[in-house]
Amino acid sequence: MDDLQPEELLPNGFSETLLELLRASPQGLGEYLLIRQLAERYPDSLFAEPGALQDPLRLFQLHFLLFHMLHRLADQLAELDQTLNIHALNIRLLPRDASAPGIALEDPLRRYYLDWQQWRETHAEDVQRLLDGFWRRQPKSMVTADELQQALIVMELQEPTDARAVKQRYRALVRVHHPDRGGNTARTQELNQAMLILQRYYGKI
């Protein structure tokens, strides 16, 4: 599978389906809700693979594949004067603001997700290193106001808050939603994503 291209891993018409799902949710979709919708639409695809959301490497590969296709779609939509905001907690299609800059070609995240070699060369031992270190090294300034607001909503918090309150709320919500306690895997992953964003904003929690 490591030698396959994205198109070989995905069903025919995947980009069109992706755009259809985003247009049907003008308020935006979180990554895990979008994955669930794709799994329902394509029950024989990687997105519906049993246990994929529990295995760190398979989860990373799903995440990377989805964000690779989202960034490709964003490039296509930019030519139609539309903007695709791509954040783990909210993926949203918007009309293009004529006064706003176009796609940032030097955006490091865009460059990362469009580099298919990253998908091929990232192995299980790399995934934990990425989870432990990558986002936590990002400066507070890399958290957008939208990312912060979405993360607080997921964590059921409002500003003002602090690292201690975030940690307490995260632990309480994970106790409720963890799959081992009969909770929802997608909700737990959403909490983990929100926690990573809030760690970037508030510092070590």
TrEMBL record:
Transmembrane segments: none
Gene3D superfamilies according to UniProt: DnaJ domain (1.10.287.110)
Domain DnaJ-related protein N-terminal: 15-137
Residues spanning the signal sequence: none
Pfam families (UniProt xref): DNAJ_related (PF12339)
Protein name stated in the entry: DnaJ-related protein N-terminal domain-containing protein
